[in-house]
Fold this sequence. Notes:
Elements: H1 4-7, E1 9-16, H2 19-27, E2 32-36, H3 50-61, E3 66-71, H4 80-92, E4 97-100, E5 114-117, H5 126-134, E6 139-141, H6 148-157, E7 161-168, H7 180-184, E8 202-205, E9 211-216, E10 223-225, H8 230-235, E11 240-243, H9 250-269, E12 275-276, E13 281-283, E14 298-299, E15 321-330, E16 333-337, E17 347-352, E18 355-365, E19 368-371, E20 382-387, H10 389-397, E21 401-413, E22 416-423, E23 428-434, H11 443-455, E24 462-469, H12 481-500, H13 531-539, E25 559-563, H14 567-570, E26 586-590, E27 593-600, E28 605-613, H15 614-617, H16 620-629
Parallel strand pairs: 1-2, 1-11, 1-12, 2-3, 3-4, 4-5, 5-6, 6-7, 7-11, 10-14, 21-24
Antiparallel strand pairs: 7-10, 8-9, 8-26, 13-21, 15-16, 15-20, 16-19, 17-18, 17-20, 18-19, 21-22, 22-23, 25-28, 26-27, 27-28
Helix pairs in contact: 2-3, 2-9, 5-6, 11-12
Amino acid sequence: MERVQGHGKIELLAPARDLQSARAAIDCGADAVYMGGPRFGARQAAGNSVADIAAAVEYARRFGVRVYVTLNTVLFDDELAEAERVARQVIAAGADALIVQDMAYAEMGLQGVELHASTQMFNASPEKAAFLAGCGFSRVILERNLSLREIRRIRAATDVELECFVHGAICVCYSGRCYMSRTMSPRSGNRGDCMQACRLPYDLLGADGEVLMAGKHLLSVRDMDLSGRLGELLDAGVTSFKIEGRLKDESYVRNVIAWYRTRLDREIAARPGLTRASEGRSVPGFEPDIARTFSRGHTEYFFDGRRAGVSTPDTPKAVGSLVCRVARSGAGWFELQGEGEFVPGDGICFLYGGGLSGTNVNGVQGRCVCINREWCIPPGTEIYRNYDRRFTAQLEAARTRRSVGVEVTVTFDEGGVQAEFRDDDGFSATASVPCTHGAAREPARVSEMLRTQLSRSGDTMFDVMRVRFGEGAGEVPFLRVSEANALRREGLDELLRRRVERTPERWPAQLRSGNRYPYGVPAASENVTNRLARRFYDRFGGEGAAPGYDLQTDLRGVTVMRTPFCVRREHGMCLKGRKGTGPSQLRLRHGAFVYRLEFDCAECMMSVVFEGRARDTLPAERVAEDQLKR
Length: 630
């Protein structure tokens, strides 16, 4: 079996919160879907039963679509037996791959499934990717903070499949290396319960505790959109293009997958030797537009290298698309400035007074918009639409369908009518009905009836594109319409069965002798939290792994976030190359929690170090002063 890189199959990978979302993603053109298992997934709210996973697999097989199951939290010793039981149940349900973070799964002797190295493993270097490939992982899911140049370097070091996020929310911290939730609560991102500390408001403090910026979302970044860079990623050797969003609703999945399907197909067609990884033709039934679905604002982030302008300091929420400014207003109404328009039922929001406010449109009279709040919105305020009623109605009304073309060849003999059903992908099935009524008095009429009835594929996944009569088909017998319909049903049912029962292509694990963990003794940030994970590293030269931070209770002094995102650079305080000036020391504070910012300017890297609570870290007079202000 060749690698995907060898035979050129390119995959559009969709998120699926549940079975319904999985089917919607497949209908809209996904080549693969990923969904949470019953437990141990990094999105606790998006778990699925084994029965639903099996149903998703059955539906996916119809189109050669693959199903991956996320079991990507770190495990504790007392969870190992249950985790293995869940993994084996998911494999028995037909999952093509398990997406895992914990190396314990590599020690469980799992068979009949691929292991994909979750982005939570912090897959950001050629050495790490090559190591994982040598350990038997068939795919490495890349860190979202990487540049195109860094992705090319990883491809040059290994032939393992590379999966890359191209759309959706970005973890500002390197994946799997964020422990901020643990400093504020018992919740942990590595355990599937991230409290999204990066989306919270912070005060930016100077060296003496003075407030330089107050109540800003200083670590919240825009959502990724690389839909304009897919060709470059293909040329860089990426084989799977991943959409983030296992907590998003079905409308988001349908719109975004349909949008990327069109653009990825165009890039594939321009590159001889590349093909899409699944089968069938998708007709979404609506015109996709990612500007009209959930987004915190779009960014290509650090795809071209470090830069400013990637954050959303005023709000971490989805504001939608800018429609207009307010020309004038009164209590409960405003007049539009510009060419934008609204309809009743639209959701709108705007930034005012340092925060985000939102409401709904009650009515529209010419250029005057009536809202369901007695607010007087200041003239000049920018108005965004974060719920598009017309577009949502189009999505809900659309008849999305994915189909496969079929050609039917009919022959006759003394015993009855036979038909061969052969689809676009080479699958075939035969069906027959006996004929006991003798020869047809009007052969042409019976043949035309047969052609008509065999073409009516109804609500199946098939489109019968052509019905032809084989050479030397024989004398046309008399045939009833009901018998022709039975012939069609039998043939298409058998064709579907053969597609569903196909043997899926999987890449077997290939352990490389002499493969060694490239970074010496695994640090606590490698998230080793159980005996099987320690055994894994021991086998590959990483003896003596430090206990992972999820086993530790006091994280004071620990780097709880490391990221190429930089507060200095983002807010015009970069010191590198004397491009700006700013205070020598900075801290973040959220409520009582204080974090020291450390800057590695040579590497353009920022670290966030947990210092503890404010009363323990700031001068007493500053704490007292701030309490009085609050």
